[in-house]
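#struct-help
A.M.: can someone run this one for me? Single chain, 168 residues.
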Amino acid sequence: MTTPKEIFVKIDKCMGCHSCELACALEHSKSKLLYNAISEHPEPKKRIYVEWMSQDSRMPVLCRHCEDAPCMHACISGAISRTEEGVVLTDKDKCIGCWTCVMVCPYGVIGRHMEERKAYRCDRCPDRDVPACVSACPTHALIYETVENFSSNTRKAASKELAAGHGG
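D.P.: on it. Structure tokens below:
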């Protein structure tokens, strides 16, 4: 089994443009075309949320696919499961719209599709090599990488900054 990839956020690079939200909703639309998606029923829903933390700071928030996922344990219909890659998914056919998963999610990122009476969440765009939100980010604030590679690259960048700051 290959090491699973995660979506990481570089908060300092996010400019709050909401391109990730639009790309996500479009990827989860029937047509995958912006003009057509606007009038689709049910309306396509985003699975990533850009939240303002302060006047000049924002943070994209999405499902973290928790190792000990509270939503999965709380789901009374058995609609929530984990793939071999570690992605927590909601099976629309099994979801009964009780919203228990919404209530227990510590990040508030499980959405309620009221027209369908179904819960939805980030599925990491299984039909794509790179999730739509990551591909759409103009500032590369979203990174799709393994934990090991992300950590290694972060350490290397930090060491370069430290070396440059100390004249050497």
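A.M.: thanks! Residues 1-58+124-168 form one domain.
D.P.: also worth noting: The two ends are 41 Å apart (CA to CA).
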